[in-house]
Amino acid sequence: MSLASDLGRTRPMQRLANPWGRPRFLVGFTVAYLLWSLLPVLMAVLFSFNSGRSRSTFQGFSFRWYWGDDTLSVFHNESLRAVLIQSLKLASLSVLIVVPLGVAFAIALDRWRGRPATAANTMMLTSFVTPEIVMGVALFLVITKLFTFIHLGTGAQILGLVTFEMAYPVIIVRARLLSIGYEYEEAAMDLGASPTKALRMVLLPLLKPAIAASTILVFADSIDDFVIVRYLSSGASTETIPIRIYSTARGAPTPALNALASLMLFATVIAFAVGAFVYRRATRGEGGETSALSDLAGQI
Amino acid sequence: MALLFVVPFYAIVAVAFGAIDPVFGSPVPVWNPLRWNFESFRYVITETFGNGGIYRPALIRTFLFVGLAVGLCLLIGYPVAYFIARYGGRFKTMLVVALVAPFFISYLMRMLAWVNLLQDDGLVNSVLVSFGLLGSPKNWLDGQAITVVLALVYGYIPYMILPLFGALDRIDPSLLEASRDLGASRRRTFTAVTLPLSRQAILAGTLIVSLPMFGDYYTADLMSGSPRTTMVGNLIDESLNSPFVNRSASLVLVMVMLLFVPMVLYMRSTARAEREGSA
Known about the structure:
The complex is a heterodimer. By secondary structure, chain A is mostly helical. Chain A is built from 15 helices and no strands. The longest helix of chain A has 34 residues, at 78-111. Chain A is globular. By secondary structure, chain B is mainly α. Chain B has a two-stranded antiparallel sheet with strand order 1-2. At the A-B interface, helix 3, helix 6, helix 7, helix 8 and helix 11 of A face helix 1, helix 3, helix 4, helix 5 and helix 7 of B.
């Protein structure tokens, strides 16, 4: 800050000439922040392509830790492969369950005013603000002490993720519903469509961008989830990538761990690209260039 | 939803106030409130708030770490959000992508990235040593409070910047122009116009960052793993993996009690924002 005011004092003429010029200090600060926030991750991805065992000295580019190495690479090591598959499985299954349920839930909440809807809404927000460890411990205790017919493992993990992720589609879809209003649906019904037909042919297409956004968020968030998935796992067979990072990062892992983490990142990037494409197509003609991103940013 | 939310919470209470199986030493939840046993809860309360309690240092440390980390998040995040919102210009979309990117990178992966960089022979040490700032490589990952606090900042700062950016981006530039036209200096325009208009976002950002930090245990585990940086989250996690599950449940209750006010505050502020948005 002091740097900025110094600049102001030393160059008064320039400042007068352009009162809306960019403060240089802020330019540097922002660039530094962005480098700080993204470079470490890029370094981690880079080292997943290291040909040596080190995670701090780069010894040449190779795919050794992805599939080159016959015993230690992600592709050939059974345990690493299982971790990758479990992660993808949990993320895709929770998207398949959470998104349709969440959309239905949001529509129901939107139509069904009054006290029950307010209560459901508050509950949804509560799950948003509760520290994850509280949810994790709670779900762990319920499943081990009360619903003992559900066993720890994939089923329990999915159940936990569904509970936690449900808030995303509900909040996003409700926001969209508010901006759509009832007019289109009423017009469809005035023109002779049945309520189901109006829902299917008018409302759902209008909700497409919100559905695309929720799908990306739910996928990215469940593949990254750590606390809940860890408490509800049943041991090595249902470990996911974040759990593996947690348990081995401080040991002496090979760059295969970086490769595993990078694969998770690539999966999210692909999901994001596909989702953004759908979003862009669905909102074509609705707003400017930045609408997809700023909408998404506003919703997080 | 109620089934998945109210029941789990009741389970915490039932275990916290539950009994211990005399043979196996494992906790038995007591579902009937009339037969609750407060022994383990009382133990946790005494050890947390009492003088010389074994949980007390961790509680104080948690508040210290979270306070420092949130302060730093705000200090770093506000200028960045301000710059991108006001001066982003034609780069704005790109800059917002860069702001959103960390959301799509796993938290654990971002911590792994720093574990790599902070190793004894890692990049941070070699840079600091080669510039002569450090005589010999420092062991960053061995219970250094500063490492844990900075890791928390690194991990949660995107959640601070986005609401700030959202609020600052919505400020109509003509308000700032009016303020300057009426003779206010840059600084005065900032303190009298920009800052008050972003107050809600500062509050929301602070809450949204601090709530998960209070429950965090993996950052401290990965970046230090030493008892010198134990936070309340670590206590909960450790007792959940021990025979004293009751204590874990009681600690969770203590945490919920402590965080109840900020949680309600946050929910009210989002509800208000929603009402204003729809009006």
